[in-house]
Each structure stands twice: as C-alpha cells, then as structure tokens.
Amino acid sequence: MDNLSNIGVIKDVMQRHGFTFSKALGQNFLVNPSVCPRIAEMGNAKKGFGVIEIGTGVGVLTNELAKRADKVVAIEIDDRLIPVLEETLAEHDNVKVINADVMEVDLHKLIEEEFDGLEVAVCANLPYYITSPILMMLLEQRLRIRSVTVMVQKEAGTRLCAPVGTRDMGAVTVAVNYFSAPKILFNVSRGSFMPAPNVDSCVVRFDIKEDTPAGVTDEAFFFKMVRAAFSQRRKTLVNSVSSGMGLDKAAVTKAVENSGLPAAVRPEQLKMEQLVTFSEELKKLA
C-alpha cells in the first residue's frame, strides 16, 4: 500500500481496525511522504541487505524498506497493530512481522535465522523515551549489523553526534562513538507526524565500527567511569568521578596526574584516547 503517508488513508485504516494512539507507547506516526523513502535509501535498505525494523506504526517505513531490501523483519510491540500491518503490507512477500518487545528478542538468533547470506542493517522510528536504551542495546550486543538508522529528537541527535571532547557531548556520546561513527542525515519537522510531537526530529545513522578503541581492558569499568564523569557536568573530572564511583579523591587525582591531564580538567574536554588512558590509570588505583 503506497499511500500510507496520506492522513486520510491512515485514519481510514485505523478506524476500520479500531486503532487509537497510545500515549504510553509514545506513538507518533509519520505522514510526510518524503521522509520514509529517504530513511530507507540512506539506511542501507538495498539489494544484498536484510533490514530489522523496530516499531512499525502502520507500516509506512516498512513499505519503503520492503521495496528496496531483500528481506525485512519488523518488530512491533503493540499487538493492536498486527491486523493493521497484515492489510498495509499484504503486497510484500519479503516482510515478516514479529509482535514482541525488541528488548526481549534474541537478536543474534534472529539475524542468524532470518538473514543468512545477507548484510544486515537496522532502521527505526522509535518513541523518544526509549531511544537511548534500545540504541545502546543494539550497540553493546555487537550484533552482525552494518548500521543503525534511527529517528531521534533533534536535540538528542546533536548530543549523540557531538565530537568527543566538545561541550555538547555526554556519556551517551562517548558510548555511541566507542561502537560506531554517528552522522546526522537530515532534519524532520514536528509537522511530519500524526499526532504532532512538541519537538522537531532528525534522522541519525550509526555506522558500526569493526574495532572499538584500543587500550580498554575492562569495558564495564570504562563505561562505569564515563557515566560517573558525566553525571555532574559542572564538576571537574576528579570531583565527578570520585563522587559518582565512591572513590577516594586522592586516588582519582593521582589517576588524572598519571594520565597527563590538568588537575582541573572537565570530562567534556577529553578526547576518546584520553578517556581510555584515564580509565586504565584509575583502574590501577581503584
């Protein structure tokens, strides 16, 4: 069904199936006809690729992905949308819809069973409240995927794609850059959705790195340090890490010194290599 971005068509489909939007699930469906084709084109939906879609809505993006990729596996948590999707995606024989919470799906197994011989990409128009948990799950699991393309709040996209070592960065920026190379593809106005959210959005693609930064001997410790460092942005690295990790301030100060960093350095001033060096020095003294 090619006219799924038409508001009248969407309302008709929803009405016939008795579907209403769920605030709890953060549902805002795309109605701008130019957005989903661009996401599909720029999100690696093409021959030789299988695509995992997370959060289908009424199938607007699913339809565009299915036109381009060899196979699409769409994961949708709202069981009320399953009969809707059976109608809107009826013309595609390369789409499989799974009614599940993506956070509970064994994605390694899914990729092995559904995408044998194919490269794999992830595309998603996620509810904003759960974007970061799902994104980090996808990255941390080290799945056999080439990229993750998601719609996020514009402000969140700026933070996710900020260079490490700049004022806009945060703990999630470090994590994202650790596993991938993020890039804002294009902006999407709030009027592109039904119902319209209160913020503008952007589409971001995370190209998965083959190798994570060298020198990290304990990833769990590294990310614990990063979360502590950015938990109190106005504080120095020494104060935020000693407070956030419950460590002796003298030990943290020594780790900063051993890393060749200024005593009053702030977390946002550190490049990835400096964060890694500091983490390794801290681990020796913690």
From TrEMBL:
Its recorded reaction(s) are: adenosine(1518)/adenosine(1519) in 16S rRNA + 4 S-adenosyl-L-methionine = N(6)-dimethyladenosine(1518)/N(6)-dimethyladenosine(1519) in 16S rRNA + 4 S-adenosyl-L-homocysteine + 4 H(+)
Which keywords, in A-to-Z order, does the entry hold? Answer: Cytoplasm, Methyltransferase, RNA-binding, rRNA processing, S-adenosyl-L-methionine, Transferase
Q: What family name appears in the similarity comment?
A: Belongs to the class I-like SAM-binding methyltransferase superfamily. rRNA adenine N(6)-methyltransferase family. RsmA subfamily.
**Top enzyme category:** transferase
Key word Translocase present in the record?
no
Q: Where does S-adenosyl-L-methionine bind?
A: N28, L30, G55, E76, D101, N125
Q: What does this protein do?
A: Specifically dimethylates two adjacent adenosines (A1518 and A1519) in the loop of a conserved hairpin near the 3'-end of 16S rRNA in the 30S particle. May play a critical role in biogenesis of 30S subunits.
Q: Where in the cell is it found?
A: Cytoplasm
Please provide, alphabetically and separated by semicolons, the GO molecular function terms listed in this UniProt record.
16S rRNA (adenine(1518)-N(6)/adenine(1519)-N(6))-dimethyltransferase activity; RNA binding
The record's InterPro entries line, in alphabetical order, gives: KsgA/Erm, rRNA_Ade_diMease-like_C, rRNA_Ade_Mease_Trfase_CS, rRNA_Ade_methylase_Trfase_N, rRNA_adenine_dimethylase, SAM-dependent_MTases_sf
Report the protein name in the record.
Ribosomal RNA small subunit methyltransferase A
Query: Which Gene Ontology CC terms are recorded?
Result: cytosol
Name of the gene this protein is made from: rsmA
Q: What is its EC number?
A: 2.1.1.182
User: What is the native source organism of this protein?
Assistant: Ruminococcus albus 8
Specify one Pfam family: RrnaAD
